[in-house]
Automatic annotation (TrEMBL):
Annotated source species: Tetrapyrgos nigripes
Lineage, broadest ranks: Eukaryota, Fungi, Dikarya, Basidiomycota, Agaricomycotina
Protein name: Uncharacterized protein
Gene3D superfamilies cross-referenced by the UniProt entry: Ribonuclease Inhibitor (3.80.10.10)
Length: 346
């Protein structure tokens, strides 16, 4: 084993010699911080409880915890023993399977917790299962939630500076729009990342219900490792009015925009940039070459055209005519084909 320091344990049921490996690691790592990743289910409840019991005795060393488990394990007294004994825990990633109407407060008293990630598509309500120290959170990541649930989380974490939404779906909004809240004002949020679901890629539900006056960084991306977004599933032009309305309502000073793995036309991107003259950083990453196979320009267009580059080119005779006069960083990833010479000949 290498030098003492931060160690990672990746545990799963059924591994031979689990007890020996677990105790050996804990003995050799001594008082070093622990980055723990646990995937525990009830197919072998005794193994799960044993692992929890051993690691819970060292909960004061936990710095990061990923827990993928069924909800019953959260209620077990073995895990409950960590309540109030998580002084170093800064990052918590929860993926809980199953439903509970009881409040579970084992993570409520975590004085160092800054980043919380939650993955649960069927969570009925943020307050129905697990309580967290919402007011101290700096970063909140929500994966596979209904957008209505995500909005409730926004409200619960008013001090969050960074929020990421990954593949949240809007079907509940279309079925029951009257259940959605009024426009929410999140005064402290500075960074918003939206990873669009390939099945339900609408953005309007997120942008229509928020006013973010402190927002400075915005990222919109297509989902990784799943169905590719084409113009049949997602139209950036149809989202343009919603985004512009959101920006005007928020009156935010956006300095960074990132667009990744989206079917974008050059005129759609340029139309949005005309409303973002304060940008200092612009990132546009296309789909990679393998993903693009079988799709033509009519289904998966590229925004990186001669017209796009001409619009960003500084005109030294009339520099104020530049589309983004404050731009300092430009990050472009063109993977479709070898870069066509005409793009860079302007």
């Amino acid at each position: 084993m290498d030098k003492m320091g931060v160690r990672r344990i990746w545990l799963s049921e059924g591994y031979g010699c689990l007890k020996a490996m677990l105790h050996l690691h804990l003995e050799l790592s001594r008082n070093s911080p622990l980055y723990v990743s646990l995937m525990l289910f009830d197919s072998d409840h005794s193994v799960a409880l044993y692992v929890l019991k051993v690691l819970s005795a060292h909960s004061s060393r936990w710095t990061s915890l990923y827990l993928c488990s069924d909800v019953e394990l959260l209620k077990d007294p073995v895990l409950s023993s960590v309540r109030g004994n998580l002084p170093l825990l800064r990052q918590l990633d929860i993926d809980i399977r199953g439903d509970s109407r009881e409040s579970i407060d084992i993570f409520q008293y975590t004085p160092a917790l800054e980043k919380l990630s939650i993955e649960d598509f069927d969570l009925p309500s943020p307050t129905a299962m697990i309580t967290f120290p919402w007011n101290q959170l700096n970063t909140l990541v929500l994966r596979y939630c209904y957008t209505s649930v995500a909005l409730q989380y926004f409200d619960l974490a008013p001090q969050a500076r960074h929020i990421a939404l990954a593949r949240c779906q809007n079907s509940d909004y279309r079925e029951r729009p009257e259940t959605y809240p009024q426009v929410m004002h999140c005064h402290n949020l500075q960074s918003l990342s939206i990873n669009i679901d390939d099945v339900d890629p609408e953005l309007l539900v997120v942008f229509n219900f928020h006013t973010l006056p402190s927002l400075s960084r915005l990222k919109i991306s297509g989902a990784n490792n799943c169905g590719i977004l084409t113009l049949e599933e997602f139209s950036f032009a149809s989202e343009h009015g919603t985004i512009v309305s959101f920006l005007a309502r928020s009156r935010c000073h956006l300095v960074s925009l990132c667009l990744e793995r989206l079917p974008l036309r050059d005129n759609e991107v340029l139309a949005l940039l005309q409303n973002l003259l304060s940008l200092t950083e612009l990132t546009i990453h296309e789909h990679n070459r393998e993903e693009c196979k079988g799709y033509g320009q009519e289904m998966l267009p590229s925004p990186l055209t001669s017209n796009f580059f001409k619009s960003l080119t500084v005109n030294y005779t009339t520099p104020r005519s530049t589309l983004l006069p404050h731009l300092k960083e430009l990050d472009l990833l063109y993977k479709r084909n070898p870069s066509p010479p005409q793009i860079f000949s302007t």
